[in-house]
Amino acid sequence: MSLKDFHTYQAKTTPNPVGLEVSKAKGSYIYDSKGKKYLDFVAGISACSLGHRHPRVIKAIKKQLDKYLHVMVYGEYVQKSSVDLCKKLASFLPKTLEVTFLTNSGTEAIEGAMKLAKRYTKRSKFIAAKNSYHGSTQGALSLLGVKSQKKGYGPLLPKVTFIDFNNNMDLIKINSDTAAVILETIQGGAGFIIPKLNYLQNVKKKCEEVGALLILDEIQPGIGRTGEMFAFQKYDIEPDILVIGKGLGGGLPIGAFCSSREKMEKFEYNPSLGHISTFGGNPVVSSAALSVLNTLENEKIINKISEKEKLIRLLLIHKKIKKINGTGLMLAIILESQEDAERLVNESMKRGLILFYLLWNKLAVRITPPLTITNKEIKKGCKIILNILDEMI
Ligand SMILES: Cc1ncc(COP(=O)(O)O)c(C=O)c1O
User: Fold this and answer.
1) Which residues contact 132 (CB under 8 A, 6 or more apart)?
2) Residue 88 to residue 75: CA distance in whole angstroms
3) For the domain that residue 288 is a member of, what is the CATH number?
4) 133 lines ligand 1 (CB under 6 A)
5) 49 CB under 6 A from ligand 1?
6) 159, 102 in Cβ contact below 8 A?
7) What pLDDT sits at residue 1?
8) Which of 106, 156, 285, 337 could lock onto 245 through a cystine, CB 3.0 to 4.6 A?
9) Quick one: 294 and 306 in the same domain?
């Protein structure tokens, strides 16, 4: 009866949610209440980086459960797992991003990053990209680059200007009033759009010229998904503030923003308590996240991403596929029509493969499996996709 209760008591975000009744999940598979097994090519929208219930993550969580849960609001007590997590993140980042603020979600980290940029620059204007997504709260929603999606929520933050992602001509809009330019390193909802050669460098250069900060949102592409720990490392650039989330948590809710000590200190004075949170840096969540980073490193999982991408691209050659956007294990099949995309997603579910959509690009079907997916599982999933596409000709 839980499906009926789901429709009765749990608020929905679409009229027709998938409604899969989940009974358990392990590795690259989710099982429904009837015991049917689904190969997961979505990973909770890029969040289950190590698959479902990775043994090391579960072990870390259990170890922490036996010590303590929530004991104090963010940033007052020394809680080893959160401190170790921040230190571990710093080991993958340049010195200018060595201090981390831990939050409960990606959106909340975006809000913190926006506040930090305002506080540091003493400016209030933001530049964001068309077709962007940075979260659903009112600050993050102000940055959202799809006008129709903001209908009914105005007035939002008034000083946001939108630029075309990958258009160098538009950088002229960044000026000495700009607090920060915020971009997804790889645009997610827009269709897994990767930055063109030198684009991010040009953005950074322009920001430096006018004293604006560059905030990169890596909530989706971060934590190994693109074949580097952070996607910006592929493009030879360093943001002033890096925002991460999703895949960091190993299946638990998390977000974080990283910056220099000099910038982050702004939250401490005039007034103090510049950004606060009860549960940010929760010890159980931090333990899970730390084990994600350690596992990615120790098992050299990120080194194998580009090989897995190549395999997917090699297998998914089909008349119905116009192109495959993205990089690493952040790939989007672009089909001819929305109808084709819906048919592929619905039919694959029936055949035991989980696929899903992107937010704004209705021709796209995401392939964002766990980073731990095996070549055998990739072949199995791609075969299902090809069979369905064959039937669509
Ligand atoms: C690029 C990007 N930014 C921000 C968010 C919001 O993160 P969360 O849902 O954890 O609040 C998402 C979530 O899909 C995202 O993909």
Assistant:
1) 143, 144, 145, 165, 182, 183, 184, 187, 189, 190, 217
2) 17
3) 3.40.640.10
4) yes
5) no
6) no
7) 61
8) 106
9) no
* Mean per-residue pLDDT pooled into runs of 10, the chain (393 residues): 91 95 98 98 98 98 98 97 98 98 98 98 98 98 98 97 98 98 98 98 98 98 98 96 98 98 97 97 98 98 98 98 98 98 98 98 98 98 98 95
Ligand 1 centre to CA of 220 (Å) is 7
Residue to substitute in 103, 142, 183, 246 for testing ligand 1 pocket (most ligand atoms within 8 angstroms of CB):
246
How many other CB atoms are found less than 10 A from the CB of residue 2?
10
In this prediction, residue 284 carries a pLDDT of 98
Q: Is 255 in the pocket of ligand 1 (CB under 6 A)?
A: yes
Cα first-last separation, the chain:
39
Domain boundary among 277, 298, 319: 298
- DSSP per-residue codes, 27-77: BTEEEETT--EEEESSHHHHT-TT-BS-HHHHHHHHHHHTT-S--SSTTTS
Ligand 1 binding pocket includes 54 (Cβ within 6 Å): no
C-beta of 233 in contact with ligand 1 (< 6 A): no
Specify the 3-state DSSP secondary structure of 140: helix
- Reading the block at residue 231, the tokens are 């996607």
- The residue type of 272 is S
- Residue 295: its pLDDT value, please? 98
- Side-by-side strand order, sheet with 353-354: 22-26, 29-32, 37-40, 353-354
**How confident is the model at residue 391, as a pLDDT?**
98
Residues 79, 108, single domain; the answer is yes
Instruction: Domain of residue 37: give its range.
Output: 2-53+301-391
Q: Supply the DSSP symbol for 233.
A: G
Look-up of token digits 């000083």: 159
pLDDT at residue 231, as a whole number: 98
Type of residue numbered 321: I
**Same domain membership, residue 149 and residue 236:** yes
Other beta carbons less than 10 A from residue 389's beta carbon: 20
pLDDT of residue 202: 98
How far, in Å, from the CA of 101 to the mean position of ligand 1?
Answer: 16
**Ligand 1 and 217: CB distance under 6 A:** yes
pLDDT of residue 380: 98
The SS3 of residue 178 is: strand
- pTM for the complete prediction? 0.98
- What backbone torsions phi and psi does residue 270 show, to the nearest 5 degrees? 45, 60
